[in-house]
Amino acid sequence: MDYLPLYLDVRDTVCLVVGGDAVALRKIRLLLSAGARIRLVAPDILEELAGMLDHQRHEIIQRPFLDEDLSGVRLVIAATDSDAVNGAVAEAAKARGLTVNVVDGAEQGNAIMPAIIDRSPLIVSVSSAGKAPVLARLLRTRLESLLPDGYGRLAELAGSFRTQVKARFSSLNDRRYFWEKVLGGPAAEQALAGNMEQARKMIGQALDAQDEQQVGEVYLVGGGPGDPDLLTFRALRLMQQADVVLHDRLVSEDVLALCRRDADYVYVGKRRDQHTLPQGDINMLLVKLAKEGKRVLRLKGGDPFIFGRGGEEIDTLAEEGIPFQVVPGITAASGCASYAGIPLTHRDYAQSVRFVTGHLKDGGYDLNWSEMVRKDQTLVFYMGLMGLPRICQELVDHGRSPETPVALIQQGTTRDQRVYTGTLDSIVSDIAEIKIKPPTLIIVGEVVQLHERLKWFGLEQENA
Ligand code: SAH
């Protein structure tokens, strides 16, 4: 190791910063967030910087650095744009045995500043020993996405139970085991989701009843329309920690591949040609698995609350008192529209958008067509491929122009995405010869005209 990582307590100690521009400003922000008193020395000081420091607590000295500036100082940061000045500051500081960091000059000082991920009280730092700071920052960005915003809350919460846990378990091993279970379990998830009271209650219960079987939890997660890049951070995290995964046809292979490898997978179907579990059985299966203490991922295509029957599944859970959370996903309408270059609303063409089920019931529709014929409204039909002729017919019969543009988006956001366009009048015959593969979304409205101009995704396939 080139450096020993250490966290410094600088609260109420004097930290000297030499330099008065944007670089110094960034360092000063950091020092202030750690509670330091700043002594700022530079001949020229940014107005913004001077304004940031309250004169009662901090010192602003407007002149070049002098050796005397080091007296009573805990930490020195040389942040000028001159190597010579930075070097002189570093030498003087080292001569006094002080800790000194030179911005962009690791070798001149004796301490470096890592890239940090701040989830206070939890702090993660990354350093490349000054060799490749940009790489360290890139790594930091990746870690940022792995560490949910709520980790700080979770650490605070755990901290507030420390004394109690110590009193309950005398051995270090038992305490560690307890924390491993709690921090990887439903209480932690509740804390990360912001339900602090619930989390507190659950940790309390875990403390009281160590040996009893704990009830698991259910994550109802939207897996988006297909492209795994469209998952949310939270979706990915829960996908990687679930013990059991219940998925259906709509969840893309690429998304499914990101779930924990050694989880149990249950296909609950919804393919017309395969045996599938009725909805009631899915609801009961979720309850059963959670009661066995499992962390159950119910992974749905798109968003669970948009034509996803997500409400029914968690209704049963709520009734049984099983902890759950719902993670939104990008719904097919958003995903397909973006990837097809069709804005769903547009100042000139559409002032509203309506998501409609195109699922045929007993060969017909129970929809209020007369509400759907306004020219300035975009319609998005889910599950509408079978009913397409009927949908077009009803819209025209109720007064929407037969010239209204229509787009059919097959397997949107995936490598197999295809977009077919036509009008209410023509689309059925336009696609008569084409074998369209599900899932397919139908967009009706003037905004579809924009596709030709704004399309950007999968153009090679389309031209192939
Ligand atoms: N909960 C899902 C919708 C489930 S209903 C969501 O929010 O997206 C199933 C319908 O969604 C399909 O019949 C199809 O119309 C649409 N759909 C889902 N994913 C799609 C995709 N990748 N491309 C096109 N349509 C899609």
UniProtKB/TrEMBL annotation:
<comment type="similarity">
    <text>In the C-terminal section; belongs to the precorrin methyltransferase family.</text>
</comment>
<dbReference type="InterPro" id="IPR000878">
    <property type="entry name" value="4pyrrol_Mease"/>
</dbReference>
<keyword id="KW-0511">Multifunctional enzyme</keyword>
<feature type="region of interest" description="Precorrin-2 dehydrogenase / sirohydrochlorin ferrochelatase">
    <location>
        <begin position="1"/>
        <end position="203"/>
    </location>
</feature>
<keyword id="KW-0808">Transferase</keyword>
<comment type="pathway">
    <text>Porphyrin-containing compound metabolism; siroheme biosynthesis; sirohydrochlorin from precorrin-2: step 1/1.</text>
</comment>
<feature type="modified residue" description="Phosphoserine">
    <location>
        <position position="128"/>
    </location>
</feature>
<keyword id="KW-0560">Oxidoreductase</keyword>
<keyword id="KW-0489">Methyltransferase</keyword>
<dbReference type="InterPro" id="IPR014777">
    <property type="entry name" value="4pyrrole_Mease_sub1"/>
</dbReference>
<dbReference type="InterPro" id="IPR006366">
    <property type="entry name" value="CobA/CysG_C"/>
</dbReference>
<keyword id="KW-0627">Porphyrin biosynthesis</keyword>
<dbReference type="InterPro" id="IPR012409">
    <property type="entry name" value="Sirohaem_synth"/>
</dbReference>
<dbReference type="InterPro" id="IPR036291">
    <property type="entry name" value="NAD(P)-bd_dom_sf"/>
</dbReference>
<feature type="binding site">
    <location>
        <position position="225"/>
    </location>
    <ligand>
        <name>S-adenosyl-L-methionine</name>
    </ligand>
</feature>
<dbReference type="Pfam" id="PF10414">
    <property type="entry name" value="CysG_dimeriser"/>
</dbReference>
<feature type="binding site">
    <location>
        <begin position="43"/>
        <end position="44"/>
    </location>
    <ligand>
        <name>NAD(+)</name>
    </ligand>
</feature>
<keyword id="KW-0169">Cobalamin biosynthesis</keyword>
<dbReference type="Pfam" id="PF00590">
    <property type="entry name" value="TP_methylase"/>
</dbReference>
<dbReference type="InterPro" id="IPR019478">
    <property type="entry name" value="Sirohaem_synthase_dimer_dom"/>
</dbReference>
<dbReference type="InterPro" id="IPR003043">
    <property type="entry name" value="Uropor_MeTrfase_CS"/>
</dbReference>
<feature type="binding site">
    <location>
        <begin position="22"/>
        <end position="23"/>
    </location>
    <ligand>
        <name>NAD(+)</name>
    </ligand>
</feature>
<feature type="binding site">
    <location>
        <position position="412"/>
    </location>
    <ligand>
        <name>S-adenosyl-L-methionine</name>
    </ligand>
</feature>
<dbReference type="InterPro" id="IPR006367">
    <property type="entry name" value="Sirohaem_synthase_N"/>
</dbReference>
<keyword id="KW-0520">NAD</keyword>
<feature type="binding site">
    <location>
        <begin position="301"/>
        <end position="303"/>
    </location>
    <ligand>
        <name>S-adenosyl-L-methionine</name>
    </ligand>
</feature>
<dbReference type="Pfam" id="PF13241">
    <property type="entry name" value="NAD_binding_7"/>
</dbReference>
<feature type="active site" description="Proton donor">
    <location>
        <position position="270"/>
    </location>
</feature>
<feature type="domain" description="Sirohaem synthase dimerisation">
    <location>
        <begin position="150"/>
        <end position="207"/>
    </location>
</feature>
<feature type="binding site">
    <location>
        <position position="306"/>
    </location>
    <ligand>
        <name>S-adenosyl-L-methionine</name>
    </ligand>
</feature>
<keyword id="KW-0949">S-adenosyl-L-methionine</keyword>
<keyword id="KW-0597">Phosphoprotein</keyword>
<dbReference type="InterPro" id="IPR050161">
    <property type="entry name" value="Siro_Cobalamin_biosynth"/>
</dbReference>
<feature type="binding site">
    <location>
        <begin position="331"/>
        <end position="332"/>
    </location>
    <ligand>
        <name>S-adenosyl-L-methionine</name>
    </ligand>
</feature>
<feature type="domain" description="Tetrapyrrole methylase">
    <location>
        <begin position="218"/>
        <end position="427"/>
    </location>
</feature>
<feature type="region of interest" description="Uroporphyrinogen-III C-methyltransferase">
    <location>
        <begin position="216"/>
        <end position="464"/>
    </location>
</feature>
<comment type="pathway">
    <text>Porphyrin-containing compound metabolism; siroheme biosynthesis; precorrin-2 from uroporphyrinogen III: step 1/1.</text>
</comment>
<keyword id="KW-0456">Lyase</keyword>
<dbReference type="InterPro" id="IPR035996">
    <property type="entry name" value="4pyrrol_Methylase_sf"/>
</dbReference>
<protein>
    <recommendedName>
        <fullName>Siroheme synthase</fullName>
        <ecNumber>2.1.1.107</ecNumber>
        <ecNumber>1.3.1.76</ecNumber>
        <ecNumber>4.99.1.4</ecNumber>
    </recommendedName>
</protein>
<comment type="function">
    <text>Then it catalyzes the NAD-dependent ring dehydrogenation of precorrin-2 to yield sirohydrochlorin. Finally, it catalyzes the ferrochelation of sirohydrochlorin to yield siroheme.</text>
</comment>
<dbReference type="InterPro" id="IPR014776">
    <property type="entry name" value="4pyrrole_Mease_sub2"/>
</dbReference>
